[in-house]
Amino acid sequence: xxxxxxxxxxxxxxxxxxxxxxxxxxxxxxxxxxxxxxxxxxxxxxxxxxxxxxxxxxxxxxxxxxxxxxxxxxxxxxxxxxxxxxxxxxxxxxxxxxxxxxxxxxxxxxxxxxxxxxxxxxxxxxxxxxxxxxxxxxxxxxxxxxxxxxxxxxxxxxxxxxxxxxxxxxxxxxxxxxxxxxxxxxxxxxxxxxxxxxxxxxxxxxxxxxxxxxxxxxxxxxxxxxxxxxxxxxxxxxxxxxxxxxxxxxxxxxxxxxxxxxxxxxxxxxxxxxxxxxxxxxxxxxxxxxxxxxxxxxxxxxxxxxxxxxxxxxxxxxxxxxxxxxxxxxxxxxx
Length: 335
Description:
Layout: H1 6-13, H2 17-25, H3 35-47, H4 54-61, E1 66-71, H5 79-91, E2 95-100, H6 109-112, E3 118-121, H7 126-135, E4 139-142, E5 152-155, H8 157-166, E6 176-178, H9 185-201, H10 215-228, E7 234-237, H11 240-253, E8 262-266, E9 282-286, H12 288-305, E10 312-314, E11 316-319
Parallel strand pairs: 1-2, 1-3, 3-4, 4-5, 5-10, 6-7, 7-8, 8-9
Antiparallel strand pairs: 9-11
Helix pairs in contact: 1-2, 1-3, 5-12, 8-9, 10-11
């Protein structure tokens, strides 16, 4: 099938090629046209499936047409976040170059070679943030611990805990165990919020931290902990895989999820738990796609207009409440 050209669009609209180019590729030059005519040109171009030449457009804009996303490991950016960034970048004629930085003396290639128009930093790495700032390139921080900063997209950690605790307000006797595994700013903020909110609002609440990265050790030690702490009737986890361990341990101890012990997972997206988890896991999850899309739009706006954007603090959303007790628990003791 023949590719639609500017000349094809111009012929259909009865205008000159420079006028079509000015409307579709930005910058009016010497061409003059009304808003109504511009809209007609865009409509015709869409119907004819016109696609501008990306390289020519970026040359006219005096840009590389590339955006760098810098990580320290492959787990720093989820598939959904990355998909959103790629989709949004492509829709605005940009390509993405993913680069990894492990703290070595040399900077990431995208910074060192200056082959990108802007950078998204997807981790809380102070040295990398400083290097990006020194480069003079537009930078957006995505879920990188830059809370309250301009040009950043973060997730409302305190709000996530508020939503989790709100699910528990009808449970009278409440002592939770919080599975707190990684020593980073996100989980520190969650735990601090858990302590503040629960100490203020809930009667008899005690927060416990638990740190261990080995799943088998978590399983054994959690079993022992629940057996020796019969007042624990809520477990709040930092991830779906932790919640999986809680389900397994409760099954081994003969405890029923929701009726005997409520389980809530903070973090992860909707539907991330395995299908075998029954009842379905109650989670307070993040909208990865919306976050990634917001970060990319923010960066492209900075590249093309030079304008800074305020922090976009993304909300956590509650996904069902099947693993949380639905009625008051007036007394509680494990057998």
